[in-house]
Specification:
Layout (H helix, E strand, L loop, with lengths): L1 H27 L2 H11 L46 H8 L10 H6 L25 E4 L7 E4 H7 L2 H4 L14 H4 L38 E3 L17 E3 H5 L24 H5 L22 H4 L2
Antiparallel strand pairs: 1-2, 3-4
The protein binds heme C (6 copies).
The site of one heme C (HEC) has 19 residues, from helix 7.
């Protein structure tokens, strides 16, 4: 026990002497001797009179770097042009060719590329070739002497087979047809029966327009039916109106029929605003990206009028 105490005391004395000696050498001696002592222990000690030079430590890579890959250019999103400025529809319709009855001739407009309706809601659809039916031009002369011509190719460029067969027409020849069947569309959406007869009855004479064609818009407005469960009528919001013209110049009929909406009123499920804000029905496009959104209070009256 005693021996241990003694040796501990001795090592304390030695340590204190060493520190004192070191402090004397570094602090109290001449610059020359300080340099000699310090440079014995450390690298890069400045010589007396020389200023310390700090150098950045550079770590050399262990392996030489590979060839530099050229960075792929990041596509800068193009700022979309205001595609639908106020009054765009009337301005567009004014540029379209008209038939002699004064209605916009959508077939000519399509051929002249005045309109280029998309086949689906997305902008990057591949346009499918119109399906040909064996007998492209079916002449329907079943009842009278008026010879009505019906072109499958004109119709299938815009409309899918399902919308007509067998929702409106049976897939047969010889069925007795009336103008009423055609009037499902040829009234307010496509050129009307009371319009230019020769477009359906090629044997009839083409009438020269007595006066220049007037602006007759085929708005094709459909008043939508309200869901019975809705409490909306008491809120005084009129049922929504769907205008075909604004849509058909942008999209082919099969962009919507029958994938998003049925043509016939009977088999449809009433739409609610919840459907729309969930991205269904009108909300497929009216989401603020493709067309104005449905949940913006400023837009309610654009659909409810
Ligand atoms: C705009 C409406 C419409 C569309 C769209 C349409 N058809 Fe027709 N189709 C008709 C009418 C009208 C007839 C004649 C019916 C009659 O005479 O009774 C007909 C007749 C037919 C016939 C019977 C004629 C024959 O040559 O035997 C076939 C087959 C047919 N369609 C197939 C098709 C196919 C396939 C498509 C889709 C690629 C299609 N149709 C799209 C209206 C349409
Ligand atoms: C499902 C809707 C639909 C039905 C049903 C329909 N059509 Fe059409 N038809 C159209 C559309 C849309 C066009 C394109 C022209 C337009 O919109 O004015 C068109 C164009 C035509 C054209 C071309 C005119 C031209 O200038 O080249 C003829 C002819 C025609 N339809 C005849 C008929 C006849 C006849 C029937 C009835 C047997 C019929 N259509 C039934 C939607 C329809
Ligand atoms: C969208 C196409 C379409 C247009 C436009 C159209 N018709 Fe027709 N028309 C038909 C079809 C389809 C029939 C029935 C088949 C048939 O008789 O050839 C028909 C039948 C007729 C018939 C025979 C009716 C019967 O009971 O015998 C007369 C007459 C006729 N149309 C006159 C006209 C006149 C006039 C016009 C112009 C004001 C006109 N149509 C415009 C499609 C059309
Ligand atoms: C893109 C067109 C569109 C816009 C914009 C729109 N709605 Fe609708 N809304 C519809 C359609 C379509 C229906 C179904 C038919 C109907 O009930 O009028 C509907 C139905 C309704 C209903 C009854 C069904 C239900 O959900 O209870 C109410 C209430 C309603 N909308 C309120 C509004 C309000 C409030 C706004 C504005 C914040 C608005 N809508 C904006 C298209 C639209
Ligand atoms: C942007 C979508 C859209 C496009 C494109 C479209 N429709 Fe419609 N269509 C509708 C809606 C929505 C209704 C109403 C359905 C309902 O009442 O549930 C409708 C209803 C109809 C009806 C029934 C009209 C009535 O009074 O009941 C016909 C016929 C029709 N469309 C034909 C066409 C034809 C032909 C084209 C192409 C020229 C076309 N649609 C393009 C959305 C569209
Ligand atoms: C396939 C896409 C699509 C669908 C589905 C669709 N719309 Fe549109 N709608 C458009 C585009 C694109 C416009 C033009 C954009 C604009 O006016 O800001 C438009 C414009 C409109 C306009 C303004 C027309 C004008 O004169 O400026 C109304 C009203 C409208 N839509 C109602 C509806 C209603 C109601 C529905 C559902 C029943 C519907 N839309 C479904 C794409 C669509």
């Amino acid at each position: 026990m005693l021996v241990r105490k003694h040796s501990a005391l001795r090592s304390w004395v030695v340590a204190l002497c060493a520190i004192g000696w070191g402090a004397l050498v570094i602090g109290g001696c001449s610059e020359e001797s300080r340099y000699q002592v310090l440079s014995f222990f450390f690298e890069g000690v400045p010589k007396p009179g020389e200023k310390a030079q700090w150098q950045q430590v550079v770590h050399e890579p262990r392996r030489p770097p590979g060839p530099k890959s050229t960075p792929t250019p990041v596509a800068v999103a193009a700022i979309p042009k205001p595609k639908y400025p106020p009054g765009w529809l009337l301005a567009l319709v004014k540029t379209l060719p008209h038939d002699t009855a004064g209605y916009p001739d959508m077939v000519a407009a399509f051929k002249e590329k005045k309109i280029d309706p998309l086949p689906g809601p997305e902008q990057d659809h591949v346009v499918p070739k119109p399906k040909k039916v064996d007998e492209e031009e079916i002449t329907l002369i079943k009842t009278g002497k008026t010879k009505c011509s019906f072109s499958h190719q004109v119709h299938t460029t815009l409309i899918t087979c399902k919308s007509c067969h067998s929702a409106i027409f049976k897939m047969t020849i010889g069925e007795k047809l009336s103008m009423d069947d055609c009037a499902t569309c040829h009234e307010k959406i496509a050129f009307p029966i009371k319009g230019e007869c020769v477009r359906c009855h090629p044997a009839m004479k083409k009438k020269a327009p007595k006066e220049p064609p007037k602006e007759k818009l085929l708005e094709g407005e459909v008043k939508m039916v309200r869901a019975k469960s809705s409490e909306a009528p008491s809120m005084g919001i009129p049922p929504a109106t769907f205008p075909h013209l604004a849509h058909r110049v942008n999209y082919r009929c099969y962009a919507c029929h029958p994938t998003i909406f049925p043509m016939k009123q009977d088999d449809k499920k009433p739409i609610t605003m919840e459907n729309i804000t969930d991205g269904k029905s009108c909300g497929v496009c009216h989401n603020g990206k493709i067309a104005f959104a449905g949940d913006d209070l400023g837009t309610c009256s654009r659909c409810h009028y």
